[in-house]
Amino acid sequence: MNVVQTTDIVTCQLIRKIVFTDEQGVSTEDEVDGMDEHSVHFLSYVEDKAVGTARVFITNGSAKIGRVCVLKDARGTYQGQALIQACLEWARAESHPRAVLGAQLDALRFYEGFGFKAYGDVFNDAGIDHRMMELFL
Fold it and tell me: Which of 2, 79, 118, 126 is deepest in the core (most CB within 10 A)?
């Protein structure tokens, strides 16, 4: 397993299209939000194949992690954990005091494993229920 910071946004977007648009039914308009050019991107690899991606950008003084996804065939192989760890390491290295994310409800436990705490009400994003989560770094 290998996670790298990348400028290959095309590959990140392709993985996101497969997971969010094709699998979860998120519209292209909802998935493409204009933040890619303002984000730091990560790709997760198994051997030489990109299988997962995540991004992080700064908003209101916090590192906002998002667009975290792993291709179906690579799930259960700790790719998601490695991607979150890479985002958190980047945020700490850049001296950001807090990381936030909007988690799909079925992923809350995954993020709680890193110490994230849910806050606020459930909200709908692109037809999927989410909650905001935060972690003080």
Answer: 79
